[in-house]
Amino acid sequence: DIQMTQSPSTLSASVGDRVTITCRASQTISRWLAWYQQKPGKAPKLLIHQASILEGGVPSRFGGSGSGTEFTLTITSLQPEDFAIYYCQQYHTSPTFGQGTKVEIK
Amino acid sequence: EALLLESGGGLVPPGGSLRVSCEASGFTFKNFAMSWVRQAPGKGLEWVSGISGSGTNTYYADSLKGRFNISRDNSRNMVFLEMNSLRVEDTAVYYCARDPDGANWFAPWGQGTLVIVSS
Lengths: 106, 119
What we know:
- The complex is a heterodimer of chains A (106) and B (119).
- Chain A starts with a strand and ends with a strand.
- In chain A, the strands form 2 sheets. In chain A, strands 2, 4, 5, 6, 9, 10 and 11 form a 7-stranded mixed β-sheet that branches. In chain A, strands 1-3-8-7 form a 4-stranded antiparallel β-sheet, with no helix packed on it.
- The model of chain A has no long low-confidence stretch (mean pLDDT 97).
- With 106 residues, chain A is mostly beta strands.
- Chain A is 0% helix and 50% strand.
- Chain B is mainly beta and 119 residues long.
- Helices cover 0% and strands 49% of the residues of chain B.
- Chain B is built from no helices and 10 strands.
- Chain B starts with a strand and ends with a strand.
- The chains are: A mainly beta (106), B mainly beta (119).
């Protein structure tokens, strides 16, 4: 299985901050990477697929980049509704997820 | 709007069996592969199983070692996960999710159904 490692595990930030989450794959996955947001007690919600394609309805402050083994999710100006846990997921082979990054209020 | 609604979760003793279901609406169900993803309490996400739109092809996480079986009924817009020889570590919320293009990324997800394996 391809291992996905996210950093940091927890990120403390304020409204308006620019936030970057990194996801690294244990082997190359081209651009076969998705990002999800999960709020407490809710199902995950797709934000981005194919590393940088924004899902319809997702605010443009969310952006994804990267290829190969290193990827980033950037939130350009953090909003109150963005405090959540974010997961990356590779789909180059049998799907695997990162361990999650919790974005909390500073 | 595509919607998914899981059901069938509950409390089951170790070694027992349970079938969870997912009913889809708002899209042409037979055209989409579907998957089950689980989340143990306070933990991350783990892909469990997937099935092609026709139901011909099925896929499983290696860790399940043949204990789970995925199926679908396109006439009822439903996908199922039958879980056998359940273990305490199978305790989780089980989500069904649509695979938009067969590539194994997922949108949308259902709200999940909780399976508790405990004596």
